[in-house]
Amino acid sequence: MASACASSFFQFLSITLLLVTLSSMLSTTLASGISIKEATVQDLQLAFQRKQLTSRQLVEFYLKQINIQNPVLKGVLEVNPDALAQADRADKERREKAAGSLSRLHGIPILVKDNIATKDKLNTTAGSFALLGSVVPRDAGVVNKLRKAGAIILGKATLSEWSHYRSNGAPSGWSARGGQGKNPYTLDDPCGSSSGPAISVAANLVAVSLGTETDGSILCPSCMNSVVGIKPTVGLTSRAGVVPISPRQDTVGPICRTVSDAAYVLETIAGIDPFDKATIEASKYIPKGGYAQFLKKDGLRGKRLGVVRLYYEFGNDTLLDKTFKLHLNTLRRRGAVLIDNLKIDNIVEIFTDQSEQIALNFEFKLSLNKYLKELVASPVKSLADVIAFNKKHPKSEKLEYGQDLMVQAEKTNGIGKAEKQALLNMTRSSQNGFEKLMKRNKLDAVVIPLASFSNILAIGGYPGVIVPAGYEKDQPFGICFGGLKGSDPKLIEIAYSFEQATLIRKPPPLRKLEV
Questions:
Q1: Percent of the chain having pLDDT more than 70?
Q2: β-pairing verdict for 445-449 and 475-482
């Protein structure tokens, strides 16, 4: 035992020294004395322009950080073996092309969640051994847009297996392939299925990442890991090539350290994709000139923000109570008009209704079977095959966590009367609840603590942006701004203005990393 403790201490010491050495060695390479750690996309692009940094050096830095921290944090599932070659190509293009002709994400490494297809040497498995070795027909629509922008696909981020639609018994952030992801602030629950993207960005294993959300899977990990997450209006970003749960609720969005970086990523990936029909209808919401134009420090001025008090009932004058009271005052001081003490008329009905679960069950089976059949090659071709695979490989898939959600979904048989009623119930709940609240009070957005509003946003396909809001001991928490479909630009304005007024985010503490 004493030997193990000594070994652990020297391991911690060497890791700490290496972290400090790397940070100090590279901090001078950036403009204005900014370290690569916590550097924004704009910081990195400025360093590129001033020839103080190359994409190869940046990729090498992140690869070292992944080697050091990932054995504990488990935010990265696979590293792209072609990442350095992509970095070299970006450096060459930067030398040859005119200044200002390249996109904001050109030469910037990005991690994508492992349910987002890449047609390269990386696997796309949703964290399951059942899809290991499967061959996708093409890049996911969002990955195609990233490549065209010159971004570097650094690798795949971990997730809750099957985007947390395998079992209610499986821990958040766990997958058979990736193991148990850990929050870099607490080494505890990272929350949500897009845990790996949030862990990796928070711990500076990469600057920007892509996650997906069906219900809370961008907002919750962003909230818990002190990063910014944008859950876009459903259809604003393509879901083609994404291992699905629900075409009605699934959305792909950025997880980054700043609102500006998230806006740049959203600007890059939003738009029409012929492989996802929903993007055609949603393209009407995309503003001319993109999303960066909404990064305004005075973006809160004149905005009408609704405060639904039900979501603020922490009790006993807790730190959360005090913090969010301060934040509401900050919003007022920045020029927002707060409409307080609001109620959603049918909130009890929404909380108790089982319609979302009914819908997700049949949608998961139908959409996953369609996805699997379109693969060029795959060990499994249906949800039934996945369930059978898990039973056949109980150790690798940790069958003790169960697969109750998959089993429930497999029992469904298309869209019958009950399923149609569930869809109708959710439409009516959204119209009579959130939409009525927004329109009756002429709100630009609601402001909600934590990710507690994710269900309301999910069932209606509405957008949300979450921003770091504080820390309770080491545990981060966020504040969320949600709005009606197409209000993404307005939410970015509001979130950016709040972020710039508070500048709350801080990097995770250096702590003992025990593998």
A1: 92
A2: antiparallel
Query: Is the whole-model pTM more than 0.85?
Result: yes
Instruction: Report how far residue 487's alpha carbon sits from residue 485's, in angstroms, rounded to the nearest whole number.
Output: 6
d(CA 80, CA 86): 10
And the tokens for 126? 């949703």
Task: Write a three-state SS string for 141-204.
Answer: HHHHHHHHCCCEEEEEECCCHHHHCCCCCCCCCEECCCEECCCCCCCCCCCCCCHHHHHHHHCC
Which DSSP state fits 119?
Answer: S
Q: Are 191 and 160 in contact (CB under 8 A)?
A: no
Q: Cα separation of 482 and 472, whole Å?
A: 23
Beta-carbon neighbour count of residue 503 at 10 Å? 9
Q: Hey, which residues are catalytic here?
A: 113, 193, 217
Tokens representing 333 are 């001081």
Strands 337-342 and 179-180, by their bridges, are unpaired
Is pLDDT above 50 for 18? no
Number of CB atoms found within 10 A of residue 138's CB: 15
Does the pLDDT of residue 12 top 80, yes or no?
no
> Around 15, how many Cα atoms within 13 Å sit in the side-chain half-sphere?
20
d(CA 491, CA 180): 32
CA dist., res. 207 & res. 184, Å (int): 15
Q: In whole angstroms, give the CA distance from residue 38 to residue 210.
A: 17
Paired with 465 in beta bridges are: 230, 481
CA distance 472 to 464: 23
Q: What is the pLDDT of residues 330-357, one digit of tens each?
A: 999 999 999 999 999 999 999 999 999 9
Q: 437-457 burial by CB neighbour count: b if 16+ within 10 A, else e?
A: bbeeeebbbbbbbbbbbbebb
Per the document, the length of the chain is 515
What sign for the dihedral angle of Cα 131, 137, 139, 140?
A: negative
Tell me the C-alpha to C-alpha distance, in Å, between residue 224 and each of 219, 241, 353, 467: 9, 27, 27, 10
- What is the DSSP secondary-structure string of 454-483? HHHHHHHT--EEEEEEEEETTEEEEEEEE-
- The CA distances from residue 21 to 24, 32, 175, 202, in Å, are 5, 19, 32, 20
Query: Please, which residues bridge with residue 174 across strands?
Result: 180
Query: Which residues fall within 8 angstroms of residue 325, CB to CB, at 6 or more apart?
Result: none
Domains of the chain: 42-296+459-502 (3.90.1300.10), 304-348+423-449 (no CATH), 355-421 (no CATH)
Q: 253 pairs with which residues across the strands?
A: 211
